[in-house]
Amino acid sequence: MVTFYVEDEDGERQSIEAPGDMGLSLMEILKASDYPVLATCGGMALCATCHVEVVEGKDGLGDASDIELDQIDNLPNPTPTSRLACQIRISDDLDGAVFRLKGESN
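^ thats the sequence. predicted structure below, dont judge the formating
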């Protein structure tokens, strides 16, 4: 199991455990954990409503694709560590990572 954290606006962190060997995306885990992630395109990197900021653990994510970067460029509030949760696969590399939800519902 991989343990990562979601940080709220007050800096409080909630841990989430997820299997690292099933090829699930961060978006799928966040939705299954009842976080307010719209993900209106269903994980195709077309809507950016699953926008997250990587607070800690960016090195384990790899580089964003050109499609993902194009969507991030169109966001009203991107940060240098913005990513789309639908494009981040859960793996052991995410163990200990911290994310902050930034999508349209936040």
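The chain is about 15% helix and 25% strand.
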